[in-house]
Amino acid sequence: MKGARGKAAGKNTAEALKPAEDRKIGKRKATLGKSSVPKAKKERRAKKDPNKPKRPPSAFFVFLEEFRATFKKENPNVKAVSAVGKAAGEKWKSMSEEEKVPYGAKAGKRKAEYEKQMKVYNKKQESSANGMGDDEEDEEVHDEEDVASGEEGQHQQEDDEEEEEDED
DNA sequence: GCGCTGATTGTTTAG
DNA sequence: CTAAACAATCAGCGC
Q1: Could you list the residue range(s) of the whole structural domain that residue A92 is in?
Q2: Does residue A93 fall inside a structural domain?
Q3: Straight-line distance from CA A116 to C1' B7, in Å?
Q4: Looking at beta carbons, which pairs linking A90-98 to residues 24 or more positions away fall under 8 Å?
Q5: Does residue A99 fall inside a structural domain?
Q6: Protein residue minimizing CA–C1' distance to B13
Q7: pLDDT > 70: what percent of chain A?
Q8: Residue A9 has pLDDT above 50, yes or no
Q9: Distance in angstroms, CA of A34 to C1' of C15?
Q10: What is the pLDDT of residue A19?
């Protein structure tokens, strides 16, 4: 019954291992914060991307956006973003999976769009590496009325709970 | 004046 | 598979 996002019973790894959860990973802002970057050993993330698509907000972020508004509303004095983050994280874990469904659903859609963007992004990388062809083209997300322009006029009535109905 | 830091968790990405 | 990075936010503080 439950959704089954991936393979059931797959979360063992995460619980078993979570050494890196130190939260203080140091400063992931290697971009320019400090020279923390892993000593240029093996640039993990490629170098700079021409037009790298930003990561879509995860379910938690989607919820966070909403939570931030509420939190701030009741705590207008709050001044640290960390406060919201902590509160949100606490509540987030407190929520039931069903409650996270709408958030996850939204995140899932964003992810789908993101994949499309990556397609173009990958193409560009390929072209670049090859030297660009003469005709390249950008497929650029043709369209898709899905979420991008689909809602155009419609409001955001997102009721799509239809996701992953995969069963065996 | 500008820009990073902090804190949350989830997803993403490259090796 | 794994480890690391980064996604938003916002005000405070450093240089």
Answers
A1: 55-129
A2: yes
A3: 30
A4: A91/A67, A92/A60, A92/A63, A92/A67, A95/A63, A97/A2, A97/A3
A5: yes
A6: A45
A7: 42
A8: no
A9: 14
A10: 42
